[in-house]
Design brief:
Elements (H helix, E strand, L loop, with lengths): L14 E4 L1 H18 L2 E5 L9 H5 L4 E4 L2 H10 L4 E5 L5 H10 L2 E4 L2 H7 L9 E5 L38 E3 L8 H19 L4 E3 L13 H15 L2 E4 L3 H4 L3 E13 L2 E6 L3 H4 L2 H4 L15 E6 L8 E7 L8 E5 L19 E5 L5 E5 L3 H5 L3
Parallel strand pairs: 1-15, 2-3, 2-9, 3-4, 4-5, 5-6, 6-7, 7-8, 8-9, 11-12
Antiparallel strand pairs: 1-10, 10-11, 10-14, 12-13, 15-16
Helix pairs in contact: 3-4, 6-7
The structure holds pyridoxal-5'-phosphate.
Length: 378
């Protein structure tokens, strides 16, 4: 195994293996941006909320951001002494007081939401902001585009009624997905065009997530220049809240080949991991994840699919130089993000075990799930 210093036959499948070493490398890169610019760096928990690693991550971050009360509680509990930020498209009356108690920053989707809850915020300790829609996104997948005409996310420039916003100290936008700092630069141009005039009177601006900062070809210098420029021009502090970037390429999903057969000229390999249950972005995005050892044009081609009843529960078509047989292990790459936190037990599929590598790169079993985990949710 070239990327993981382990004997993959020693783990139980299906399982996620999170590499502590790769996480650390990502954290150091993100911390570098934070130190160079003085911006705040948060972890968007919805992408990766393996709180076992929060104590390690806390040393490199200003805190976490949450999509709702539960994630906020998780961040507050497992990253204590760090900030908790939150954005939700709308807050529930029954949950708001707890949110206001836990969170240092609350971002509201509309001025009306802020006006509705503002009396329940202690402004001496909690800062409030509005998420805005800069009407510019280079995200082509409609599922991930918060600037489409039917989007509910963020207040459009013409709807930002500042008379309802007295007490807010910042603005938030989130319009990117797995993108570079060149996209951020173009987005900022539009953001400033629509909202720059308000920033002079505010304290902070949150650039959201979708920044692929830890990817090898990411232009970190350009990111830092843009953060510096905005901070100097408007006298605000920039907040970054990437999710993926923290755990990018830091995790694997190992599965076992259960059967191999040919049908209508296609050779199928059935494995004990499922796209629908364990890597839903494969179907939602959609995309084909990399497999360690798969090649472009190998002698042996397989359609790799799950045990489930869903006809489309196929991870992809792959080829290898060596044939696959039942009992073989295959390892999907970049599986720490948007996986564990999106898992489900459709078809009664097992939830993958979770391993974390130790200082020597050896995976240590962290969690194992069973029948009871399936039953307890029904
Ligand atoms: C999803 C999301 C993030 C994190 O996005 P990544 O693509 O994982 O970096 C940050 N902020 C908000 C508001 C989000 O919805």
């Amino acid at each position: 195994m070239n990327c993981l210093n382990i004997d993959i036959n020693k783990v139980e499948t299906p399982c996620y293996i999170v590499s502590r070493e790769k996480m650390l490398r990502n954290m150091e890169i993100l911390d570098g941006v934070r130190r160079r610019t003085g911006c705040k760096m948060l972890q968007a928990q919805k992408a990766f909320s393996m709180y076992a690693l929060y104590p390690m991550m806390a040393g490199y971050l200003d805190g976490t951001t949450a999509s709702g009360l539960y994630e906020a509680k998780l961040g507050a509990r497992y990253m204590p002494d760090r900030e908790v930020h939150i954005f939700s498209a709308a807050y529930k009356d029954a949950e708001f007081d707890e949110i206001a108690r836990i969170c240092d920053h609350i971002v509201f989707n509309t001025p009306a939401q802020f006006a509705r809850f503002r009396d329940r915020v202690d402004f001496s300790r909690t800062k409030c902001g509005i998420r805005v829609n800069p009407l510019y996104s280079e995200t082509e997948t409609e599922l991930y585009n918060p600037c489409s005409p039917r989007s509910r996310l963020g207040t459009r420039p013409e709807d930002l009624d500042m008379t309802l916003c007295e007490g807010i100290t910042g603005l938030h936008f989130h319009t990117m997905c797995e993108q570079g700092s060149d996209v951020l630069q173009r987005t900022l141009e539009k953001f400033e065009e629509h909202f720059g005039k308000y920033l002079y009177d505010l304290e902070w601006v949150n650039f959201g997530g979708g920044h692929h900062i830890t990817r090898a070809d990411y232009d970190i210098d350009l990111l830092c220049r843009e953060i510096d420029r905005i901070q100097q021009k408007y006298g605000v502090q920039v907040i970054m809240e990437p999710g993926e970037a923290h755990a990018l390429d830091a995790g694997f999903l190992a599965a076992e080949v259960l059967d191999v057969f040919t049908s209508a000229g296609n050779t199928h390999a059935i494995i004990d991991a499922s796209a629908a249950c364990h890597m839903p972005d494969v179907l939602e995005m959609p995309y084909t994840p990399r497999i360690v050892g798969a090649v472009k044009k190998g002698r042996y081609r397989y359609i790799i699919g799950a045990q489930t009843c869903l006809a489309g529960d196929v991870i992809g078509e792959y080829s290898f130089d060596e044939p696959l047989s039942p009992g073989d292990r295959i390892v999907f790459e970049d599986m720490a993000i948007y996986t564990m936190c999106k898992n489900n037990t459709f078809n009664g599929m097992a939830l993958p075990s979770i391993y974390i590598t130790d200082e020597n790169g050896i995976p240590v079993l962290h969690k194992r799930f069973g029948y009871e985990d399936f039953v307890s949710r029904l």
